Amino acid sequence: MGWQHTFTLAKRAKGCHLVTDEVVGHIRPGLEGVKASVIQHTSAALTVNENYDRDMDMALDNIVPESLDWQHTDEGPECVTSFSHTKASLVGSSISIPVTDGKLNLGTWQGIYLTEFRHLAHTRRVVATIMYELLRNYEVNT
Fold first, then answer.
1. Residues 18-44: tens digit of each pLDDT
2. Of 22, 31, 99, 123, which residue is the least packed, with the fewest Cβ within 10 Å?
């Protein structure tokens, strides 16, 4: 079936945070296959981008401004979260990356980002799954 592990990323406030090393630290050595990661939150997201990009947060703030007349106040008037939910939907809750020889097979400049959309710092849970048995048992019929 594969390997699966749930872990918690360190507490971070709003922004786009490079977390590649933190994610790699939770992967069992020697695995090979396809790694799928899902963040279990609606006000944060995971993405792959250039590992030195300082403009993502600014761009997302311009695409989805907090100043709109947001209606979602279910968590209290001081905690309007529609903008963070909208950004999380646009960025996405999951990523897939090949794992080769036990290492993430990312491009030279690629890294994994946690995009945190809430101003207060939060820890975030991630479920990492490496599907390897399915790949190992796959046979091509020619």
1. 999 999 998 877 888 899 999 999 999
2. 123
